[in-house]
Structures are given as C-alpha cells and as structure tokens.
C-alpha cells in the first residue's frame, strides 16, 4: 500500500505544538506507512522537533509545511476564514485539496475548522451539509457512530437522511461492517412520536436503500441497538456533552467513595489495578477524534483540550479512514441511495433538496 | 401541620399492585403525617392489603377509593382519556381536583397520565403547557432540576420561559433555595449559538425577573453550574434517556472488570462496601419521581418499571412538594414574572402567547 499522508495543523488546540509534535513523533514511530505533513510556524516546529530530539530516521517521514498565521480558539469563523488565508488550518486543508495529503487533522476551533475545510474541500455530490460524527463505545462491546454532533443546528429531513448515508459509509469502511443498521434518535420508538422533521426523516429512511432500524431512544446509543444513530447537531451536541459530564461526575463520585476514610483508601489501593483497567476502558482520550463527513477529503477534528495521547488517537482516526477507503465508500453509498429504490423514483429517494420544501 | 393526603394510582406501572401497595405501606409507616388514598380495583387492593398483613393502625391512614377501569401501558392517549372515564389514573387526578387529596402519583403510561392530569386539573394561569421536571444529582453534591423531559416536543420561546418559571418555583420550594439560577440548554455559551427559538428564549429570560445565568451546555447539567436547566421536551427526553443508558453501561463495565478472573473477583469482594456505597449514591431508583409542573395540583410520575423502593421515592416527591408549598410558590413566581420588569412592559415579559407569533 502507498504511504498514507496526513496533514496536521500543529498550531491548533488549547496547547498547540507541545501536544501536536510529540503526538506526531509517537504516531510516526508506530506507523511506518504514514508520512506526516507538519503545518504551522516553521521555526517553532523546527525548535520543537529539535527539543524532542527527533532522529534523522524519524525526520524521513516528517515534512514541515510552513504557514504564517494561526487560528486561535477564540477567532470568529469569519476572521479565520476571510482574514487568515495563510493559517495552518487552511494550509492543512489545502494540502488535501491539492492531493499532497490524504487526510488533515486539527484540534483547533471547531467552527473555524468546519468552515475552512468546507470552503477549501467542498462537499461531495449529493451532500448539502457536512456533519460531525464520532464513534463511542457501547454496552455490547462495539461502537456506536453518532452524528451530527454540532455542525448543523437546524436540519431538514433530507439532511438527516444524508447524515445516515455518511454514518453508514463510515461504519462500513472503518468499522468493516456490511449494511450497518441506522437508528433515528427520537423520544419514543413508535412512528407517531417526535417532531415533523424526524417523522419525515423516518419516512425517507424507510424508503431508502439503507438498513433502517427505525426510531431509537437516548439509551439505545449506549446499548448498541444500532450501528449509526442520526440526529440534528443541536441534539447530538447536547447528548455528547451531557454524556461527557455524567461520565466525569461518576468518576468523581467513585474517587470520593474510596477517599472517605483510611479503610476505604486501603480498599481503593487494593482494587487499583481493576479500577485502572476500567478507567482505561472508558478514558475519553481513547475516543478522541471526530470525523467531519461529507467533504471531498478526510477531515478529523481533535478535542481542543487533547493531550499527546488523545491527539495520537485523532491521527489514528485519520489513518484508519484513509486506509479503509472512507471517501470511496461514501461516494458509493450516495450512489446506491440516489439510484432508484424499489417502487420509488429518484425524487422520492429524498436527495432532491426541493422534494420536501414544506419542512421548515 | 395538617395531614398530607396523597392519591395513588395503585394499578399503574409495569407491576401495579405488587409494587404500589407495599410501597404505600412502607411510606405510610415512615410518614405519620401522611394519609394515602389507594385508587384502583377495590377487591384487588383489599386482597393485597390482606396479603401484606396491614395492621389496623396502618389501615387508619389508608383509604381505598374504588375505580373500575385501568389504563394500560399500551393504551393510546385518546383511549385513556375518552373511553376510560373511571380509570384509577383519572380518579386519582379527580381527588386532587376535588380537594380530597393534595397530590397524586402514578407509575402508568406517561402520555396518558399527562393528558388526564392536564384535562382534569387544568393549567395554572400564565402557563400554556405543563412540563415534566426531574431533579438529578450533580457533581457539586447538589441537585439539578431539568425540564421539559418529554411533555412538549415543539416549544416556542415563551414555553421555555414558562418552564424556567416552573423549574425555579420547584427549586425554591422543594429545594429551599432563594432565587435559583436558570440555564438555557444550548450548544455553546455564546449568545449567538443555537437555533432561533433558543435565542429568543434567552432574550425573554434575560429580561425576566428570574435569576438567568445564560446558556449552558450538556456537561453543565452534571457539573451543577445552575439550579435549573431548561430545554424542550425532545432534547430533555433524549438527554435523560441517554444518561440512563450511559450510567447503565458504565455499571456493566465495572462489573465486567471485577469479574475478569479470580484475582479481580477477590479485589471486588474486598472493595464491595465502597462499591455498594457508590452504587447507592447513583442508584436511579433514588431519583425516581418526575413532577408534572404547571397544573393546578401536585402531580407526580413514577418510572413505569419502578420497584417498591423506587415507588416510595415518587411518593416522597409528592409529599415534599405539598409540604414545601410548591403550588403557591409557582403561582407567586408567575405573578412576579408577569408583573412589569425593569424597563419592560407586560407584553415584553413574554407571557403573552401572541408576542412572538413568528416562532414556529
């Protein structure tokens, strides 16, 4: 297989270079088939590489691509997009557009990364809006992909159908699962539940060639009822963040119980190996890396607060997406859905933005 | 203080009498100031009381109120409301309406309980739609009240304001907290984030006499950033159910880690007292009982799958709401908000349904 080339916005995130460079070096060591394009302020990257004592062998698969500007975590989208045309974020996306990289990764400002990657790379045919997707662990030992996680606040039924297509493509390529099942996030399993957009999306999904399971409820995300859970970005973002908050709270509660007195501290010390295994298993850093789907290129967003270990997982996501042929699979899934389904017309397949103009 | 009289729909929930009667007896024993009205099929209730060997002393504060029909968990709302006019659910609500009970509790079908209690009791002046609220534990050791949890799928900004009023009244009465802080659930703290309804609700809340904190994100629910989190019923229901699912999954994961081998089993046995304390602390049964707010009476919904212990907590919720004067406090809070705020008019205070007719 050819080298997999990943462009990294080395300046992005809460920490920037102190996280991205060590993560890049560690990732590179573990992946001889990867070439990393380190995008950012060249002298600072050089200094970090020197500080990290990168060996000549390591350097062989690293390339510095200079960028003179940096998008900050507080930059407004307009500023990032219109006024910082030589930002590390922008250059990273342009490397993918120009075929010099297969994927790009940033831990920077989500809104800016979304806008820039969309502006530079454009959406795939048949996709109106990109969506943010993430795989989270479920109770059945697998992973559930959920999208959209915040790129689109107001969605039409067609958008939700498109998210289902993109999520299915992600699971069938990266997750190596044929015909992934898709659930529509709702407040009840019955078809009559939910708002108008969700009801119409269910109808589109039912008529599509996707493996539509039907409505799912909040608890199904973690039960592993389906491979892909589809919702609008408002709901998805709130579900994701509330889950992060709950997991954190439960972690604090466990710690507090073991810290209650000398006796419980002792029990905690004894149980440490097991508790550590549990912590590792649910460590959110392991699930770092969300995919910006629907673009003409693999784009990964790392959590802004990612440390080196977490950022490596975001690089891994980029690598896996390229290796498993995510883009090709997405285009293929779109083609399947837009082709005439049993008893339907192309119009009915729901990829025509005008087909349901009555949806707000 | 006068007796607190609670009407119990003894037939509701996944289990009905085998749960509600023992719970009622246990609750009654712990609360000499409570009188319980046991509503349902009289002979069956009698049989259960005999089976539970209810003493004459216990019987003194229990009264059977016969109802000849039962709303099932699968009954459609229309059937429950229009065709079962002598259901235990309906009679329980009517006892409150007629002043024979101070509160009513059911573990039955949520949609039916909502519709029946609303039909029988009507909404308070200034409240268009009742909402479902629940207090859940947060990281700062307190409780966060979140509403709506599913009564209202599509909400206007005015509805969200009304939820904020009801939630504030709940916290200030039951939670004994003056001027509870209110957060509006959104996908970012910045005022520009979110959909139109949320943005307009923020504006209404900012101008109201409530203690509005501003936008909050999903993780703030469990952080305890504010006392009351307001959202529409679609989002609230999904957040609640996904949190239940996540908590369950983490419980399964911990168990799995301790069951890995003999060594970890031993560690688990040693740590049992601490793990049990943790489990008790996060036991969802302790947080059973959601309040149907905005009605002219205290109405509590227990989880359908509640066991005896959980159902007792729902009865406790009813008792606390009456004892703390929830209804009076709600009316008082509504009056405060509808009175002209600084620089505003009654119209601007946002309780006129027509004031923002442009919201879908």
Automatic annotation (TrEMBL), chains A, B:
GO cellular component, one term: cytoplasm
UniProt-listed Enzyme Commission number(s): 2.3.1.274
Single GO MF descriptor: phosphate:acyl-[acyl carrier protein] acyltransferase activity
One Pfam match: FA_synthesis
Subcellular location: Cytoplasm
Transmembrane segments annotated in the record for this chain: none
GO biological process, one term: phospholipid biosynthetic process
Taxonomic superkingdom: Bacteria
Main EC class the enzyme belongs to: transferase
Keywords: Acyltransferase, Cytoplasm, Lipid biosynthesis, Lipid metabolism, Phospholipid biosynthesis, Phospholipid metabolism, Transferase
Similarity remark: Belongs to the PlsX family.
Its biological purpose: Catalyzes the reversible formation of acyl-phosphate (acyl-PO(4)) from acyl-[acyl-carrier-protein] (acyl-ACP). This enzyme utilizes acyl-ACP as fatty acyl donor, but not acyl-CoA.
Quaternary data: Homodimer. Probably interacts with PlsY.
PANTHER family on file: FATTY ACID/PHOSPHOLIPID SYNTHESIS PROTEIN PLSX, PHOSPHATE ACYLTRANSFERASE
Name of the molecule in the record: Phosphate acyltransferase
Organism: Pigmentiphaga kullae
Organism taxonomic ancestry: Bacteria, Pseudomonadati, Pseudomonadota, Betaproteobacteria, Burkholderiales
């Amino acid at each position: 297989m050819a080298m997999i080339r990943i462009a990294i916005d080395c300046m992005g995130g809460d920490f920037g270079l102190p996280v991205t460079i060590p993560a890049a070096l560690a990732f590179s060591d573990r992946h001889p088939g990867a070439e990393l394009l380190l995008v950012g302020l060249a002298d600072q990257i050089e200094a970090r590489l020197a500080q990290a004592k990168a060996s000549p062998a390591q350097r062989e698969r690293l390339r510095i691509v200079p960028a003179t500007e940096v998008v900050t975590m507080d930059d407004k989208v307009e500023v990032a997009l219109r006024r910082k045309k030589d930002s590390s974020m922008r250059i990273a996306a342009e490397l993918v557009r120009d075929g010099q990289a297969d994927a790009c990764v940033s831990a920077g400002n989500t809104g800016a990364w979304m806008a820039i990657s969309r502006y530079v790379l454009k959406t795939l045919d048949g996709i109106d809006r990109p969506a943010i997707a993430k795989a989270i662990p479920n109770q059945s030992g697998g992973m559930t992909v959920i999208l959209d996680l915040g790129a689109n606040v107001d969605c039409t039924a067609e958008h939700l159908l498109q998210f289902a297509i993109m999520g299915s493509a992600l699971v069938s390529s990266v997750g190596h699962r044929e015909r992934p099942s898709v659930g529509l996030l709702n407040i009840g399993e019955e078809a009559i539940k939910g708002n108008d957009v969700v009801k119409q999306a269910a109808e589109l999904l039912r008529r599509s060639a996707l493996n539509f399971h039907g409505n799912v409820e909040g608890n199904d995300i973690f039960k592993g009822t389906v491979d892909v859970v589809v919702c609008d970005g408002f709901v998805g973002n709130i579900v994701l963040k509330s889950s992060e908050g709950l997991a954190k709270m439960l972690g604090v509660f466990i710690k507090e119980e073991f810290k209650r007195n000398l006796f419980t501290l002792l029990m905690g010390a004894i149980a440490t190996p097991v508790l550590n295994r549990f912590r590792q298993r649910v460590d959110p850093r392991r699930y770092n890396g969300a995919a910006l789907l629907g673009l003409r290129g693999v784009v990964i967003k790392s959590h802004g607060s990612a440390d080196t270990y977490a950022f490596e997982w975001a690089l891994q996501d980029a690598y896996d997406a390229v290796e498993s042929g995510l883009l090709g699979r997405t285009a293929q899934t779109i083609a399947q859905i837009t082709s005439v389904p049993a008893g339907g017309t192309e119009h009915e397949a729901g990829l025509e933005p005008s087909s349901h103009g009555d949806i707000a």
